[in-house]
Amino acid sequence: xxxxxxxxxxxxxxxxxxxxxxxxxxxxxxxxxxxxxxxxxxxxxxxxxxxxxxxxxxxxxxxxxxxxxxxxxxxxxxxxxxxxxxxxxxxxxxxxxxxxxxxxxxxxxxxxxxxxxxxxxxxxxxxxxxxxxxxxxxxxxxxxxxxxxxxxxxxxxxxxxxxxxxxxxxxxxxxxxxxxxxxxxxxxxxxxxxxxxxxxxxxxxxxxxxxxxxxxxxxxxxxxxxxxxxxxxxxxxxxxxxxxxxxxxxxxxxxxxxxxxxxxxxxxxxxxxxxxxxxxxxxxxxxxxxxxxxxxxxxxxxxxxxxxxxxxxxxxxxxxxxxxxxxxx
Length: 329
Hints:
- By secondary structure, the chain is an alpha+beta fold.
- It has helices at 3-12, 19-25, 51-58, 71-83, 129-147, 167-180, 184-191, 196-206, 212-220, 228-240, 247-263, 266-282, 292-304, 308-317; strands at residues 36-44, 64-66, 89-96, 104-111, 154-156, 162-164.
- It has a domain at 19-111: Roll (Ubiquitin-like (UB roll)), CATH 3.10.20.
């Protein structure tokens, strides 16, 4: 597995929401009982000159071990909000597996992220409850693997659906494929649902159908979905199946990805940068072909980001040398 797939795999499961919310709603409760090694503060803002000052105010030293519920984390956010009293500050986090030790996490501070306009949704389309249960089982299994320190390696198999090297996840992927391969129309209908949960779930399950070209257009039209979870799921699908996207489609998707870099938070930057990086690697699109504004945004992110889920694809995209993590060698 290459660098792109390793880092992307580490970031997908738990970038949709805070870990506390994930644990309460759809993830393993042990996340609240597991000490987390905090790697530092990732600042998401378009005022790039303020990033250093915000990190100083946050004062969360790399390597600090804290439970998710520790009040010191709330104090970090409170300090930033006091410093930026006229801004909208949101504090979240992203976790990744660490073999043989406690999970690692980045503390995310998002500043003045633009509110996206609500979609003119097309339908009340909904998928069956059996599909929703499969989607929940997949995300929970993924999260449990990461919290156990398992580095999750994913790939597209010869049947053109998302698969894993890990036996438990591979078995679940095969089960989802068996169920969804004859229900593509149901997923397409749910992708335009007025319910954002239905939209997000449909894009996650599209990974397992085995007909990726069919879903490029619906996923591409939701890169900038008004719901963060749906946008994340749609763009994730496009990154996983980037090798199946035509050059013409990739140019159109790059425009939407660049918009996402300007407007979105951590999840939007993570997935959009990987999509642009994948297009560069495949030869479909060079960095120089992006708009001047998009190029500058990528350079600023590459210069100021310290979270590998964002910093690595940004630097790869502009052509900087990037060392692979130890686990991939």
